[in-house]
Amino acid sequence: MPPKVIFLDIDGVMNNLGTRSEPEGPGMSACLDPDNVAVLNQIVRATGAVVVLSSSWRLTLPLAELRASFAAAGCEAQVVGITPNVDGPRRGREIRAWLDAQPEPPTRYVAIDDQFDMPELPGRLVKTCRVHGLTTRELPQVLAQLAD
User: Fold this and answer.
1) Which of helix, strand or coil describes residue 19?
2) I need a surface site. Which of 63, 97, 104, 146 has the fewest CB within 10 A?
3) Are 117 and 102 in contact (CB under 8 A)?
4) Using 50, 70 and 90 to split pLDDT, how confident is the model at 19?
């Protein structure tokens, strides 16, 4: 497992209120906002982190289709997996379950989400505003979580 992981929500993080909310055709690349993708690309270039999707999209689309959608939207991040669906909509528990299942957990990780609080991951959540999604405002906090 790469040493740095971003647990990534999609709605309200990789898109915002101005982004198309329904996919047109297969995949969901039209639902990823170019500005939000650009910020994620900055994070990935600066840290070498990989992405594990924690979004509810992981429950409706296969991982291969999610990967293809991110690539089609210009995302440079390597999407390595999804969190398990455990105990209802508690993303912190799902992320904790993913971490606990790894033979070699990442040395650094961050969860980026707009909706859920994550008491299971103290100090690891960077919250976005769904109006704007992931922006350069969150960049310093995300980079600090993933710093060596």
Assistant:
1) coil
2) 104
3) no
4) confident
Total length of the chain: 148
Closest CA to 133 of 35, 28, 24, 53: 35
Mean pLDDT across the chain, nearest whole number? Answer: 90
| Distance, C-alpha 38 to centroid of its chain | 13
Decide if 66 contacts 58 (C-beta within 8 A).
Answer: yes
pLDDT at 62 over 90: yes
Q: Which residues contact 125 (CB under 8 A, 6 or more apart)?
A: 92, 110, 111, 112, 113, 117, 118
Helix runs in 48-138, H state only:
63-72, 91-101
- pLDDT tens readout for residues 82-103: 999 986 668 999 999 999 999 9
Structure tokens at 61: 């689309």
108, β-bridge pairs: 4
Strand 108-113 relative to strand 50-53, pairing: unpaired
Rounded to two decimals, the pTM is: 0.93
Q: How many CB atoms lie under 10 A from the CB of residue 38?
A: 15
Q: Are 52 and 7 in contact (CB under 8 A)?
A: yes
Phi (first) and psi of residue 99, to 5 degrees = -60, -45
